[in-house]
Amino acid sequence: MANYREITSIEDWSAVLEASATKQQIVFKHSTTCPVSANALNELDAYLGSHVDADADFVLVKVIESRPVSNRIAEDLNVKHESPQIIAVRNKEKHWTASHWAITNEHITAVLD
Length: 113
What we know:
Largest sheet: 5 strands, mixed
Number of strands: 5
Number of helices: 4
Order of helices and strands: EHEHEHEEH
Helix content: 25-40%
Structural class: alpha/beta
Distance between the termini: 21 Å
Shape: globular
Strand content: 15-25%
Strand order of the largest sheet: 1-3-2-4-5
Mean pLDDT: 94
Radius of gyration: 13 Å
């Protein structure tokens, strides 16, 4: 069972951005057609499987199905859009980001723990 929720609207994203003022938000931008993204999602699942009490909220954005949301995230956080991509958001700003093969359980653990 995934420990994240999917966001599909600009309103959902706005709520996540607001919530980052009080609790770190981890955004995973996922392409449902990309094998590299599938691997990165497996790495995130592995991290979440061993960190059920992680001090952050985790959200998933499907970049093809929710393109306007994905674009708004890139714009609001001033980050280049990539997929797969993981972004840690604190105080309504990007704290950390990684993409493609850099998204590993070990890398996520090193940054978030």
